[in-house]
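Morning!

As promised:
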Amino acid sequence: MVNSSGGDQPKSPVKWAGGKGQLLSQFEPLFPKQRFNLYIEPFVGGGAVFFHLLPAAAIIIDNNWELINFYITVKDQLPALLADLEKHVNEKEYYYHMRALDPDKMDPVCRASRFLYLNKTGYNGLWRVNKKGKHNVPFGRYKNPKILDRENLPLVSRVLQHCQIIPGDFSQALGFAREGAFVYLDPPYHPLSPTANFTSYTADSFGVEDQQRLAQVFKKLDQKGCRVMLSNSDTPFTRRLYTGYDLQVVYARRAINCRGGKRGPVPELVIRNYL
Ligand SMILES: C[S@@+](CC[C@H](N)C(=O)[O-])C[C@H]1O[C@@H](n2cnc3c(N)ncnc32)[C@H](O)[C@@H]1O
């Protein structure tokens, strides 16, 4: 497949929990060897795989509206966003002022600008909300965070011109899926233990029923003739859900989703309907 970068390679514009940047070299031999005519990523997050593959035609989906509004703004209103990003300062008081603003009352550009500012200056770059949907990440105390990246954001905007950006549930992928498409699914992981449930990307959590619903969507995408690749934790439950498909183990260094709080290589599953 021809990629759409036409020059410098863009990188993910946000830090994202569960980001797949560190796994790309292990993924490389697992991506489809055949060309694909459409790329669909229904849990796009920071889009490490999307920005690596740079597909010429793509659909990205996520149910985090702040993230989706950010991508739409980078695609359609880049100059206004770059101008607004100039106003931010990396100071504690200003951070908490921005954090307290109600994004629903902001126009899309200011909202996207606030999103990127909080992502770059908040602790660990996480986007985390409480049960009421309020952003609750503390100030990160970084020395010199790159809030306004004048080189990368235009590259990101260029790649997004070939991309439909869809808010909402992953199951919408079925409406776009067609023979010859490649679908990469990277859901919130099934927890390794009952206490290790990192599920705060949005106010809604992703439970056992969602994992089962996702396995059904995987099967339907398979039946439609798509090549489908999915990441998840390596547990008896996830292995059972995808019995009959190709299962590969990759190793991730995870600060979250890890056994007993220990860091170190954690096995994860890559499930595929092709070899
Ligand atoms: C593991 S992260 C994806 C990380 C991404 N692969 C990366 O490299 O940054 C999971 C993503 O799924 C999104 N999500 C959670 N539930 C969803 C749902 N029901 N439908 C669509 N997206 C969902 C979250 O907002 C989050 O961005």
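The pocket of S-adenosylmethionine is lined by residues 16, 18-20, 42-43, 45-48, 61-64, 169-170, 186-188, 201-202, 206 (CB under 6 Å).

Hope this helps with the figure draft.
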